[in-house]
Each structure stands twice: as C-alpha cells, then as structure tokens.
C-alpha cells in the first residue's frame, strides 16, 4: 500500500466544482481535498452567504448560486455534488446530475442516489450517452475493513463465501403502515449503508424475503445471492444506543471473518490444539501463524489512518474518483449501477412481505 500524498505534493490535479455547502460536506467531503489531487475552483449553493463562507474557508476562486452558470463559466474537469432532500424526503440528485453529465463532466455524488430504481435507470441512460461516469459515495466500498475483508474472501484458502450475517441499527417504525408513500422517509434510505457493504462483499442479491416485528420495527431480511450464497440483514432498531452500530460476518470454507463496529476486522482461521477430543489441554493451535488475526486502529499516534476521513473511506473514495478522471478511465467500484442495485433493494423493503421478492 503506497503512502498518502498531501494535496500540495501532487503534480497533476483535477479542476473541480462543488455543488452543496452543507454541514455534512463541511465535515466529511471538503476536508478530503487536503489529501487528494483536487484543485477546488468554485463552490455553489442556493444560499449565497453560505457559498461565500465555503469559498473562503476551502480556498475556491469563485462562488455561485446557480450550478448551470458555474459549469458554463468555469473550466472544470469534474463536479462534486452533496445535496439534501426535497420536501417529500427524496434525494435531489436525479434533478441535477443528468445536467452535469450532459455537460461532459464526471460526477462524484453523495448517497443515496435516488428514491426509486426508475430514477437511477434514467441517470444510467444519460451516463451511457454522455460517455462520462458517476461515483456514488457509498462508503463501505472504501472502508479499510471492508477492502481487507474483500481481499481475504477472494483468496482460494478462504473458499467460496457461502453466507453472510449482518446487523445494523435501523427501523421501519413508525412508518410501517405507509412506508412506500409517507413524506420525510429519507431516513430509511440509510439502508444503502449496510446493503452496500453486503453487496461489495457478496455480490448482487437475487431475491429477498422479510420477517418483521411490530411495533418495534425490527426486521430480518433473508437474502439469496446470484452466486448461490445466502444471508440475512437484521435491522435491530431497539438495540442500545451505546452498542456498536453494526456487525457483519462472512462464512467461507472453514474460514470466517467478522467486521465489528466497522473498525475492527477479525479473520478466523487455523485450528485449536491437536489431540483427542476431551483430552486437549490447550485451546491455542500448534501453529502460531495459523491462528486468528485481528486488526483495529490505534489512536495514540498522529497518523492519517486513524482519522475519520480515512477510517470511513472518504479520502479513498475521492482519490479513486480523481485518479480515474486524471487517467481518463471509468470507475469499477461504487458505480451508479451499484446504486441502482441498492435502490432496487430499497424498493423491496418498501414492498416487504413474507413472500420472496425478486431483485432482477
């Protein structure tokens, strides 16, 4: 793994515009430019005062309140888009991203991509016609723990991953009666977080079935993958707030791994001490190199790897996008097509029933 570069160390950078001057972007996206080959040229927000604050704070040359004016006046290589939701709780990206693609600009955008799969299909059509590409920033495609887990399960010794168990704190209550239509539903689009991690590790889902408990809103989603693997995602809405938010376990051929709290990765392999059953005195295996392996960050040193921007894959995502733009190549991870699959799964949650629902 190569060392990270600081922004001033890059000889080549992309000229980027940024649409959106909100709190999430301030915390988690603009700061990634310190570690990526990005020259922030212009920012845009409907609130001119806020746009000017962001322009000064992050060193852009110009600010705009109209994104169409920005992309017409500025010579840009790409655009970053981080928006909120409309009054009905639906993402705004389908209304803006197609214009950027038609203007010949690749797009890095926050998730979720859209409220319906049909909206994503329309963006996919524009993406294909434009020859450009969209990266949708589903972070788990770039988490260090998920990237390492992906490397492990692709090793021959791990064997074909046959099942996955996931847990994530999310609820269908209090909207269990009208989840498909109620306004303000954007919070449930957070299903893209656990499902993007599952998709990255296991591939596309073929069909799903749901069992839920009301009024708690706890849900078990049973999963059948196109690969033949099986799994489940537990939405554990009533777990304690002090509990780790999420946990995933992938089972292979006598090997398995656990991603705990998104930051701790445990790889279980090898065997316990040899000997006759009932008479083995030591639980530690005979070969110390074949035992379980655990990775977790430390926070004692001033490293970049223990910064949230790196732990949650934000810098990695932006770097991946920027390098693709510089090299004139399309991305293969966290694509708009990946988000289409995640939105199909969101659609299935809206229809949830005790019957299997196809995700074809």
Task: Give a structural overview.
With 360 residues, this protein is of the alpha/beta class. The chain is built from 10 helices and 15 strands. Helix content is 28%, strand content 21%. The longest helix has 15 residues. Helix 4 runs parallel beside helix 5 and helix 7 crosses helix 10. About 3% of the residues have low confidence. The strands form 2 sheets. The protein has a 9-stranded mixed β-sheet with strand order 14-13-12-11-7-10-9-8-15, covered by helices on one side. A 6-stranded parallel β-sheet has the order 3-2-1-4-5-6, with helices on both faces. The chain starts with 13 loop residues before the first strand and ends with a strand. The radius of gyration is 22 Å and the shape is globular.
- For the CA atoms, what is the radius of gyration? 22 Å
Task: State the shape.
Answer: globular
**Order of helices and strands, N to C?**
EHEHEHEHEHEHEHEEEEEEEHHHE
Strand percentage, roughly? Answer: 15-25%
- Adjacency order of strands in the biggest sheet: 14-13-12-11-7-10-9-8-15
Tally the beta strands: 15
Secondary structure class reads alpha/beta
Low-confidence stretches: 174-185
Kindly state the percentage of residues in helix: 25-40%
Mean pLDDT: 91
Q: Describe the biggest sheet?
A: 9 strands, mixed
Report the end-to-end length measured between terminal Cα atoms: 37 Å
Tally of alpha and pi helices: 10
